[in-house]
Amino acid sequence: MLINLGFDYQKLLSFKFFFQYIKDKRNWLKQGGKITKNKMILFDYCDSAGSYKGHYFHQDLLVAKFIYEQHPKRHIDIGSRIDGFIAHVASFRKIEVIDIRPLSKSRHENIKFRQLDFMSLQDLGKVDSVSCLHAIEHFGLGRYTDAIDINGHNKGITNLVKLVSNGGRLYISFPIGQRDEVHFNAHRVFNAKTIFDHPSIKKFMKLIRFDYVDDDGDLHLNESIDNINPDLKFGCGIYTFKKIN
Questions:
Q1: Bond preceding residue 229 cis, omega within 30 of 0
Q2: 150-205 pLDDT per residue, tens
């Protein structure tokens, strides 16, 4: 049995910088500086400037770049991260956002939001660019107030394909691993090749490129699906499809 002793190990390890903090404080006061409150933040002494790793960092930036280069007439997103991908795209163009959850009105005019359940077919017309990043794996699991539906992800993919006009592009990402799994109620994990068995993908879509993030959070660009590490446990597959029918 694991016992939680209430320790914050990051703070505990950073305590070695206490004397650096005291030295810096004395130097500040010596220069005539004023102190309103003592906060004593020690862990930033050993932290890096940030990280270039992870599913969301890579997929959000990469797919936003694809959309910038393609310059579609109309782009609709289903369920992607607002403070990541949506923000990237909205910085240079208008984007329509669909999510089953509510969202307060944005003061940024490039973001248009509608609350809809995309497991059901929606009357949105046809568009030449659609994205659904790290969202389809949640459909039907109930985590986000959606109805329990063991085929929710398949219904979602069908509706995504229907939304794309001929010649248009679909950008979709989700967790990939060695086999199809359900981690209830968090998410599904898919074998990277499973999506090609979906009837709508098989009939209407052509893979333009495949990128993925590995278990270490590193990005592999324009890879062959056959070259994925067979021991991959929880990566992120990023698929760019073009509608051909």
A1: no
A2: 999 999 999 999 999 999 999 999 999 999 999 999 999 999 999 999 999 999 99
Among candidate residues 87, 100, 95, 79, the one with its CA nearest the CA of residue 60: 87
Q: Residue 3's pLDDT band (boundaries 50, 70, 90)?
A: very low
Q: Where in the chain does DSSP place strands (E)?
A: 75-78, 95-99, 111-115, 127-133, 164-177, 181-183, 187-191, 205-213, 219-220, 235-243
- Total Cβ atoms within 10 A of residue 172: 27
Beta-strand relationship, 235-243 and 111-115: unpaired
**Residue ranges of the domains in the chain?**
10-45, 55-243
Residue 152 parent element (H or E): helix 152-163
- Superfamily of domain 55-243 in CATH is Vaccinia Virus protein VP39 (3.40.50.150)
**pLDDT score at 10:** 58
User: Residue type at 127?
Assistant: V
